[in-house]
Amino acid sequence: NACKCAQLDLSQCMVGQIVLGATGQAISRLISHYTGRPVLGADPKEAARELFRRRGGIPSTQEEILRQADIVVATTGIPNLIRPEQVRPGQIILALSNPQPEIRPALALERGAAFAADGGSVNNVLGFPGILKGALDAKARKLNLSMYLAAAQALAELAPQGELVPNPLDPRVHRAVAQAVARSAMETGVARVHLDEDYFLP
């Protein structure tokens, strides 16, 4: 949805992930799975960079990511890490650390970002209930990237025009995510039961 707001095609974008902890690695793998393209990744720890490289990512630096990436995702936990002058016009900046982001969205937008959001815009309460319900309903042997991607796409489709994500209090949200995850579990062969079409009715 950030790409829609910025009129960018995610499949054609260069994405950069700043800091490759568990969250950063997971975000990078999901994006790469969706786009079929490697993600740039920066981290001060050599072990994190090496794991990222083994998983198909391209180790880089924060400076290079801010220069090259169309979409910058930061999960560093360091407030104000991204300087306003580092923002390129037309970039998408997702500074997701809480309670303070790497750069305030308003400041990134002032510097020409096409779209900017912080950790307050995205909450895992949107995904977890539906992901777990869908996996349990399908009696999935495991959770895979396709199931997570199905959840993300369901959330994107339910977001109001111009918004990044839907309202977590919208009763349709968790059901739609559960249905998408269960269907993906069946399609990818990890479901241990076959759910009939009644399960997937709105």
TrEMBL record:
- Keyword Disulfide bond among UniProt keywords: no
- Which stretches make up the Malic enzyme NAD-binding domain? 1-186
Query: What organism, scientifically named, is this protein from?
Result: Tectimicrobiota bacterium
GO MF: NAD binding; oxidoreductase activity
Specify one Pfam family. Answer: Malic_M
Instruction: Indicate yes or no for the key word Repressor.
Output: no
Q: Which InterPro entries match?
A: Malate_Decarboxylase, Malic_NAD-bd, NAD(P)-bd_dom_sf
- UniProt-recorded name of the protein: NADP-dependent malic enzyme
Q: Which UniProt keywords apply?
A: Oxidoreductase
